Structure prediction request, 506 residues.
Amino acid sequence: MTDGPVYWNPVLETYPLEKIRVLQLKKFNKIFQWAYDNSKFHRKLYHEAGVGPDDIRTLEDIQTIPKVDKSAMQDIQRKDPFPYGDALCVPLEEVTEYRQTSGTTGQPVYQPDTWQDWEWWSESWAYLLWAQGYRPHDRVFIPFGYNVFVAFWAGHYGAEKIGCEVVPGGVLDTRARILKIQELNATAMMGTPTYILGMADTAVNEMNLDPSQLTISKITCAGEPGASIPSTKRRIEEAWGAKVYDHAGATEIGAWSYECLEQPGGMHVNEALFLVEIEDIETGEIIEKPGRRGKMIITAFDRQAQPCIRFDSKDIIEWDANSCSCGRTFRLIKDGVVGRADDITKVKGVLFAPSAVEDVVRGLDGLGNEYELQIDTVDNREQITLQVELMPESETRRETIEAELGDQLRLKTNLRYDLKFRKYGELPRYQVKANRFKDNRNNL
Amino acid sequence: MSDSQFNLEEIDRLIQSMKKAAKTAAEQAESFPAVKKNVDRILASIKMLEINISDIITLDDE
Prediction:
C-alpha cells in the first residue's frame, strides 16, 4: 500500500491503448522530423533508404525506416563534432551531460544529453519509481559509483523529482554502504541484482549482520536481467526482507520499462515516452500479438541531442496477453527482458538462452548465487559447462543436488551439461554487472 | 481514470503562459547569464509538463 495518487501521470498511464497508439504515431513523426532536419547521419541513412518524414502515415509505415544499432553508433563517433560525430542534433555547447555505455561489447558508445534530455531522463525514472511505491517520505540509498555510466544517475534525480531524500553512496565500499543504510534507516535502494545480492552476502558473511533486519523495504534492480527471474527475485527479497522491482533501460535509449507494485511477472513499457516494436529474430517481421519472443526495436520520442529512433537493442522480449491489475494500460512485457539476442545461440542444435540457467541455479536450495557458464568445442563437439557453488551446509546433499540440477536444466533447456561443483567463494564475484556466460566456440 | 477528472485544457493554458513568460524574460535579459541559464532550466521543466499534459490536449484536438 502507498499513499497518495496511484500513478505519476493518472491520465497517460490509464489512457485507452488506441489513443496511446495515435499519440505514438504523432510523436514518432515529430522525432523523425527532428532527426531528419538536424542529424547528418540520420538524414543520410533515411535518404539512402528512400524514406522521409512525409512517408510515415501509419504505425506500420514506421517499419520501413532503417534501424540503428550499437555498431552503427560506434562507427560514426570519435569524429567532429567531437566525440559524438554526425548524429548530434544540437550545437555542442548545448550538451550538458556526457555518459557512455559500459563497453563490455567493444568500443563504448558516447551519449550526449542536453539539459532538457537530462530532465527527460529523471522524468522517465519518476514514472517508474512512483509505480514502485517510492514517495516523498522515502530515504533512498544509492550504492553506485557515480561515474561515466548512466546507470543510476537518473534514478538519483528521478527520486529527487518525486521528493525523496536521496543519499548518494558513491566512493564508499560495500561494508561502509551497509553501515550507512543501517545508520540512516534508509527505506529504499537501487542496484544491479548482482551487486544487491553481493551486498547481502557481505553483510551476512563478513559483518555478521542480517540485511532483512535493516530498514530497506523496496529495491529497484536494473542494469542486467535478474529481478524478473523468479528465483533471483526471491533470493533478493528473502535476503533483504524487501520487495524487489525490475526496471530495464539503456544509455542509448532511456528508462523504457518498469515493474509495478502488483509484481505482475513482467514490466510495463512506458508507451507515452517510447515506441516498442518486437522483431522476429529469424524472419524480421514485427510481432504484434503476445506469445512469441523477439528482439526489441525501440524509439524514444523526446530525446533530442542524439535521438534514439528504431534502435535495435538486442533485448529479447514478448508481449504479455494479460493486462495488469494496477490499472495501467501501458502494455506488459512478459517475464521482463528474458535475454540478449547476442547471447541466445544454438547449442547442439538447440536454441539456448543463458537466463534459463540462472533461474534453475537460483531456484535450488543448497547452491550459492554465483555460477559460470561456458560453451567450448572439444574434439569437434560442443560442450556446455556449468560451474556452481555448493553451500557449506549442503555438502552432504551434493549427490541429490547434482541430480536435481541436471534434471531441472534438461527440463528447462533441453541440454545436458558438464556440471562442476566448486566450494563456496571460489567463483568470481562481480561488482556491478555480471559476465557469467562465455561462448568460446569461435575462439581459435 | 478519465481525463475529465482534470481540466487539462486549463492546465495546458497555464503551461503555455509559463512558457511564454519564461521566453519573454530570457529575451529581455539576453546578456544576463543568471536569467538566461535559469530560464533554460525552467523551459526544460516546462517541456516535461508538455510531454505529460499538452501532448494529450493537441491529440484530442485532431
User: Anything to note?
Assistant: The domain at 345-439 of chain A is CATH 3.30.300.30 (GMP Synthetase; Chain A, domain 3). Residues 286 and 398 of chain A are 46 Å apart (CA to CA). Chain A is about 30% helix and 25% strand.
